[in-house]
Amino acid sequence: MSDSDTSSHPRPIAASAWRADTIVLHAGYNGHDHQRSAAVPIYQTTSFLFENAQQGADLFDLEEEGHIYARTGNPTQSVLEERVALLEGGTAALAVASGMAAIDMAFATLAQAGDHVVIASQLYGGTQNLIAHVLKARGISSTLLPRDQWSQLHQSFTAHTKAVFVESVANPSGDVADLELITRQAHAHGIAVIVDNTSATPLLVRPFDHGADIVVHSATKYIGGHGTAVGGLIVDGGRFDWAAQRERYPQFSTPEPAFHHFVITEKFPDFPFAARARTIALRNSGATLAAHTAFLLLQGLETLALRLDRVSSNTHELLDVLVQHPEVSSVSHVALTSHPDHASARRYLRGGHVPGLISFELQGGRDAARRFYDALRLFQRLVNIGDSKSLAAIPAETTHHLLSDEELRHAGISPGLVRLSVGIEHPEDLVADLRQALQHAAPAPHHPTERTTIITPALALEEQA
Ligand SMILES: Cc1ncc(COP(=O)(O)O)c(C=O)c1O
């Protein structure tokens, strides 16, 4: 990377003809510019040298591009940002300390006291908690919209609505958002749409292709993919016309007192959202991604395409077991024809892949779920998703335990719902562990009860495409 490349500025991403499998390995880095280091180096430094006083002043005035101080960026982080921005088809990205930091900063970049946001009812519990309580305490109100009301989304809008927030593939329900239905209505009112693409990854869903304006990620999940690093990203789609919506979003097209009185849309026309997120939200919150963590996330990202192939095929194997098992009362996954989003999945999921999140309930409810859970030997009992290793959680007792009963109902989470995050182990070992744990779900002695819910068999999306 040349001097002009090692920038703490949010930078535009050069168009690339590479496929995703190649981008994850090569984009944004040339070892010849880094002491011929083949691997992306960890820039373990807080600060970057100035040649002289003039250069320091120029860097601060954005007359010259370059890193200054690692709170707002460093060269290891820049490579991660460039790779993810390219994968998503955005114009720039900002890597931050966690997925929650990315979501919080995305809202902070758009909304302030007196504003309003509309959110899907099926979201990661931490996001729901942030919006329902933390944003509320900051004076930002929200409307939670159940999935069956998305066609009337526009009725929730007010003059102060600043964003619609959805997950492309929801955690834990696995529901696939009808992004075009959502973005069409939001854009008709000049409102930006933020999509959390964590559970899908850009290899399964590219929200910008369907009208989204901002994408956020918990890189902790599939991007890192090894359960070793917490991080997040905000990606700017670069197409939302903030200046045209000046009344709703004056912060983008009026002089910004917190940043040199620059007009963000004039100074950074290609990626104003990423620029504002970096120069205001990140600079002032300081929720910075450490260089070492950026390195770990880059290592994980290299194998994303390979991992998702195996996750997808393993998911089909496990679904086949679950839908036929007498102890299982319901299974939720978009690969099943019974899933209400099966059609959306066929429309939005790319590459013949299916997401690796499976939710299911047992005939014996919560007690059976606990027996099943405690009997797992290979699936790890913890709260994370997107690891190479297969994981299991009971969301109502963990990730979503802060939600009210009504919020849980809207999120499609019953007390006994089990969430699996499918990893890349050998499928037969996963199936064996699932089967033996399901045996333990029944109260001893084992009398399988009659099934109450009709479940249709798993259907490979790729066979239908
Ligand atoms: C869909 C989704 N978004 C955001 C987050 C928050 O990410 P992090 O834990 O990296 O802060 C999570 C965490 O589980 C998640 O599942």
UniProtKB/TrEMBL annotation:
Signal peptide, first to last residue: none
Top-level lineage group: Bacteria
SUPFAM superfamilies from the UniProt entry: PLP-dependent transferases
Modified residues (N6-(pyridoxal phosphate)lysine): 221
UniProt KW Transferase keyword: yes
Keywords of the record: Pyridoxal phosphate, Transferase
Cofactor(s) listed: pyridoxal 5'-phosphate
GO cellular component: cytoplasm
Record's keyword annotation contains Cytoplasm: no
Biological process terms in GO annotation: cysteine biosynthetic process from serine; L-homocysteine biosynthetic process; transsulfuration
GO molecular function: cysteine synthase activity; O-acetylhomoserine aminocarboxypropyltransferase activity; pyridoxal phosphate binding
Family the entry assigns: Belongs to the trans-sulfuration enzymes family.
Descriptive protein name: O-acetylhomoserine aminocarboxypropyltransferase/cysteine synthase
